[in-house]
Write a structure and sequence with these properties.
By secondary structure, this protein is mostly beta strands. Helices cover 10% and strands 35% of the residues. It is built from one helix and ten strands. The strands form three sheets. A four-stranded antiparallel beta sheet has the order 4-5-10-9, with no helix packed on it. A three-stranded antiparallel beta sheet has the order 1-2-3, with no helix packed on it. A hairpin with a 3-residue loop joins strand 4 and strand 5. The longest helix is centred in the first third of the chain and has 16 residues. It is elongated. The protein starts with a strand and ends in a 13-residue tail after the last strand.
């Protein structure tokens, strides 16, 4: 069982039945159990996976928030990033290459398939509003890096009463 916990408005923290941040992830345990079952009972290997995690690191400097997300095998054209004040939403579309039958070549049967087709998204709620116009995104070696400059804090103004 997995879920999310929100701590005082900070970005969500992932937890699972094995432990918070520590130990093995539930998907690793599921994968191991499926492998064992297929070896013991001779069941067919899993052919479709739907669960995709976008693992992220969020750091803060005095002037910006820096988000790094793992998006291995995803082209930059298949990633969308929406920034709105304190909220950042990242969506990635995973496209698994399919093999097509070639005349004169023996047909293939999948023995193990863990790469996925589908989309995954993450939402982040930041403690301070960011300047969407100055934000930048960089995609290299399967890592998406977002640099989100903080908006200058609004100064308080006392109004004179006429």
């Amino acid at each position: 069982m997995t879920g999310f916990i929100r701590f005082n408005g900070n970005p969500n923290v992932r937890w699972n039945s094995v432990g918070l941040h520590g130990g093995r992830h539930a998907s690793d345990v599921d994968r191991a159990l499926e492998s064992l079952a297929s070896q013991v009972f001779g069941t067919a290997a899993r052919t479709e996976t739907t669960a995709v995690d976008l693992r992220a690191d969020v750091r803060e400097t005095t002037t910006a928030y820096i988000l790094q997300l793992d998006v291995p095998g995803v082209a930059k054209e298949d990633i969308t990033v929406d920034v709105d004040e304190k909220t950042v939403r990242v969506e990635a579309t995973f496209k698994r290459a399919t093999t097509e039958a070639v005349e004169g070549v023996a047909a293939e049967t999948a023995v193990l398939t863990e790469r996925v087709n589908g989309a995954a998204s993450r939402n982040f709620r930041l403690p301070q509003a960011v300047d969407a116009e100055q934000a930048t995104a960089h995609h290299e070696h399967g890592v998406l890096t977002l640099t989100l400059p903080k908006k200058n804090a609004t100064t308080q103004k006392r109004l004179a009463i006429n």
